[in-house]
Amino acid sequence: MKILIVDDEEMIRAVLREYIEFEGGEADEASDGMEAVKLCRERDYDVILMDVMMPRLDGFSAVKEIRKFKQTPVIMLSARGEEYDKLFGFEIGSDDYVTKPFSPKEVMARIHAVMKRGKGAQTSQEVYEFEGLHIDMEGRTVTVDGEKAELTPKEYELLFYFVRHNGVALTRERLLNKVWGYDFYGDDRTVDTHVKMLRGNLKEYRKFIVTLRGLGYKFEA
Amino acid sequence: MKILIVDDEEMIRAVLREYIEFEGGEADEASDGMEAVKLCRERDYDVILMDVMMPRLDGFSAVKEIRKFKQTPVIMLSARGEEYDKLFGFEIGSDDYVTKPFSPKEVMARIHAVMKRGKGAQTSQEVYEFEGLHIDMEGRTVTVDGEKAELTPKEYELLFYFVRHNGVALTRERLLNKVWGYDFYGDDRTVDTHVKMLRGNLKEYRKFIVTLRGLGYKFEA
DNA sequence: TAATGTATGTCAAGCGGTTGTCAAAACGCA
DNA sequence: TGCGTTTTGACAACCGCTTGACATACATTA
């Protein structure tokens, strides 16, 4: 049980951590949204506890950002009445919410509930939508403006890796290591060819794959 | 899972529908009691979500009316404190209630609870119909255009697993683990052979089993 | 601005891997 | 033992990956 606690109040983080560790869990802490996003890129969490009101990047925006590359369940922590509508609609993709002041026990209960749910569903619903580009990793389908795109295995893997690292600059070397595997010994221009094919299949959405001269590529949507 | 949502606020209906459909359910909507009664006469629902305060015919009266001809489980949605006593006593024949503002997650949990309760009476038989392909898991029968298909045990298990994961990309490894069991140590090409046999038995509906080159297979209907 | 070198885009062809298919062998149950 | 089922191995057909060559775009320097 790995939890990320995101709150600007150290006291709150400390209390939650206490409870999580008491139950044998592991907790990381972030004091604002930016930090949270960064940590999420680096590690996988079972649940994220996310405060709404924070400096730099607020909770809603942070979840939105994280959703671009991960589907980790999120429980929002908010002051009563604070942006209530958003919480209600879960427009930003959170899975539950708790209003402050909350009892740590309640939070723990929600954590367990969310984790249980996730296990039941089993599938971590990796579905992305960028304008008219629809990507379903579970079903291994990609549609461009509603029309199904027929990709080759490598193209799927490459695209999925791109999407999971949306906005991250990727060198050819890293792509070869991660998509082709560490045991691949070949020309790194191979990447270029596959990017070309992938771009062709993405039609107008080829624009999402940006060339970084002297470096590699980046998926940006 | 067929749900009828009755509420005069379109926003609330939309949110609930979203959640129901996300879980693979089907939802109809009514904006007042009269409409709800009308729809209930025409169709059978697994659960009805019924708001209390509505124009024309209120929730309590609507349930009373529906109870005259159907026993569909009802979950009442009401503002906190609103006619609390009635809700609490379930005098009007509702099976559960949720007070607004509620979290959609909570509502979903109640739906599951109510449906589970109801299941004791009538087992939700796992019967699937894809065009002319009829699959009855409980009866362990498969008919192709009305003609019974004779499958071997493994073929049944494989098909059932496929159907239960309709639209999901499945690797040979996963199929071996789930259908053959984790203790199977053999060639993963074994899957191919069984897929071949299964396809042969499904005749024209072999098309539902899609090959995902470099990965495995997917059932898609 | 022109010249030059480097990086990337693009394409086609051959090779190698993956899958469809079948038959024979191995297995398991009555 | 005998039968149906499962698994394995072999072969053919097919498809995708990789590579090398050339074209083009970009950056650097004079």
Can you put this structure into words, describing what you see?
The structure is a homodimer of 221-residue chains. Chain A is of the alpha/beta class and 221 residues long. Chain A contains 8 helices and 12 strands. In chain A, the strands form 3 sheets. A 5-stranded parallel sheet of chain A has the order 2-1-3-4-5, with helices on both faces. In chain A, strand 4 (74-79), helix 4 (84-89) and strand 5 form a beta-alpha-beta unit. In chain A, helix 2 (33-42) runs parallel beside helix 3 (59-67) and helix 6 (153-164) crosses helix 7 (172-180). The radius of gyration of chain A is 19 Å and the shape is elongated. The first copy, chain A, starts with a strand and ends with a strand. Chain A binds chain B through residues 84, 88-90, 95-97, 123, 138-140, 152-154, and chain B through 11, 15, 101, 103-105, 167-169, 212-215, 218, 220. The structure holds a DNA duplex (30 and 30 nucleotides).
Primary descriptors:
four-stranded antiparallel beta sheet, alpha/beta, homodimer, about 220 residues, elongated, DNA-binding, five-stranded parallel beta sheet
